[in-house]
Amino acid sequence: LQNSHNVKRKWDLNELLYLNNIDPNDVIKRWRQEEDELSNDEALSEEAEEEAEDFFQKKEPSDKTDEDLDHFQPMYKLDELKSKWEGENRQDAFNEIKSRFFVAPKIKKGGDDDG
Amino acid sequence: MSKSESKIKTFRGPRNFRLRLVLATLSGKAIKIEKIRSNDLNPGLKDYEVSFLRLLESVTNGSVIEISYTGTTVIYKPGLIIGGNLIHQCPDSKPVGYFLESMLYLAPFSKKKFSIIFKGITSSKIDASIESIRWGIIPIMEKFGVREVSIHTLKRGSPPLGGGEVHLICNTLLSSPLTLHALEVPKISSVRGVAYCTRVSPSIVNRMIDEVRKVLKPIGCEVNITADVWRGENSGKSPGFGLTLAAESKKNNWRFISEDIGSNGELPEDVANSCCLKLLKEISESGCCGRNQLVFAMVYMCIGKEDIGRLKVHKAQIDDDLIWKLRDIKEVLGAEFYFKDSDDQDQNQLIATVKGIGFTNSSKKIA
């Protein structure tokens, strides 16, 4: 019984993309779940469920009618960005995008002040 | 009559209001948008949405717009895009970027050249600023063959009172855009930007520039921010400041954009900091385009020739908002995107492919 619970369908993004009866939130959720499964298939169901709960909680306020749904700038959460790029693991974050630049990022404190 | 009425594409809610109308105009199909904020305390269209409809009416010939008594339903039957010389007074609730951005979808497919002066606020927290359109959207247009389009800032106007003026000129008239093949994730060689202020001390600009240099120092690439201080008549009616950053690729002119402006009680350092963080986020989660350029590129891909266009996108860029937009594109234009895995080292990249609908500029057909 548990097994059947753990088996999740692999969703292809292209299958879901234009199914109008599935909410775009759910499309993303199903598609991403499959991604989690590929990377670490242990302890998935719990994690995924937790994630799903988080997801609903986060998304609830966005259903309010006063939100502007026709904007140009992407809506990022500044706290998340701060913790990623200015927190303890900032070096990892900068290393992650190293390949996107022509120059290699260097994270040394102090050093030369020509910048 | 009732038969054709029932065929009208119907949308619900205020989501993607401009995109839906723009797609309808390009395809020449009538659309109906219903239930616009019908459960809201202030139901129906906002003043800026009505203003946008008026703008559409004036750049087209023969458009019919019917707004219901409560303003919660709009029926739009598009006419031909004719363009021409216009002045558009934007309401204080939205900056000129809101209107300007959408006009760029239509401008190259017009009968006459577009020359529109937009008056009003020139920046806001959530809509496009002039710089991000100039550096973010216009380079994308160039890739589709629209080479002669320019935006001139005649006056800047910070919120809330505005008083700015921006001139859009589009001299390229195309029958259909080129097919895009963007399969190489661009490498960024430098970060450029503009820090501007209106009716405040120029030192604010320098504080923003210093903060940007500090935050972006770890990436070790060239950072070049221009100080743009506006004084006197041309600086609008309100004090304000803002920053736009663009990470430039060395090849092929791709740019990733982020922007922010100072609102009440915000320090210039805060604005610069959030702008940098957003830029880093954009770079870390992008294929060839940033999130704010992606839909524009995708629409242009759809209205191309009947050939498969390809664009590299990052998995993180596919979010619910994008899916809403892709569904709207399919609803009106009938073009469906297909996402393929890409074969390079980065597992997070996908290739978005779409077959153009073989669109031709309807005003060109006659000439």
Give a topology summary.
The complex is a heterodimer of chains A (115) and B (367).
Chain A: H1 2-6, H2 13-17, H3 24-39, H4 44-59, H5 78-85, H6 90-96
Chain B: H1 2-7, E1 9-12, H2 17-27, E2 31-34, H3 47-59, E3 60-61, E4 64-67, E5 74-77, E6 80-81, E7 84-89, H4 96-106, E8 114-120, H5 130-143, E9 149-155, E10 164-170, E11 181-182, E12 188-198, H6 203-216, E13 222-230, E14 240-249, E15 255-261, H7 268-284, H8 291-302, E16 308-314, H9 320-333, E17 338-341, E18 349-355, H10 362-366
Parallel strand pairs in B: 1-2, 7-8, 11-16, 12-13
Antiparallel strand pairs in B: 2-5, 3-6, 4-5, 8-10, 9-10, 12-14, 14-15, 16-18, 17-18
Helix pairs in contact in B: 2-3, 2-4, 2-9, 4-5, 5-8, 6-7
- Work out the count of structural domains of chain B: 3
Secondary structure tally: strands of chain A = 0
Approximate helicity band of chain B: 25-40%
Would you give the CATH topology of the largest domain in chain B?
Answer: UDP-n-acetylglucosamine1-carboxyvinyl-transferase, Chain
What is the C-alpha radius of gyration of chain B, as a whole number of Å? 21 Å
- Distance separating the two termini of chain B: 31 Å
Number of strands of chain B: 18
CATH architecture descriptor text of the largest domain in chain B: Alpha-beta prism
> How would you sum up the major sheet of chain A?
none
The proportion of residues in beta strands of chain B is 25-35%
Average pLDDT of chain A, to the nearest integer? 71
Beta-strand portion of chain A reads: under 5%
Question: Main β-sheet of chain B: number of strands, strand sense, barrel status?
Answer: 4 strands, mixed
Q: Treating each run of at least 4 consecutive H or I residues as one helix, how many helices of chain A?
A: 6
General form of chain A: extended
Shape of chain B: globular
| End-to-end distance of chain A | 62 Å
Give the total of domains of chain A.
2
Q: What's the CATH class label of the largest domain in chain B?
A: Alpha Beta
Strand arrangement, largest sheet of chain B? Answer: 1-2-5-4
Instruction: Evaluate the radius of gyration of chain A.
Output: 20 Å
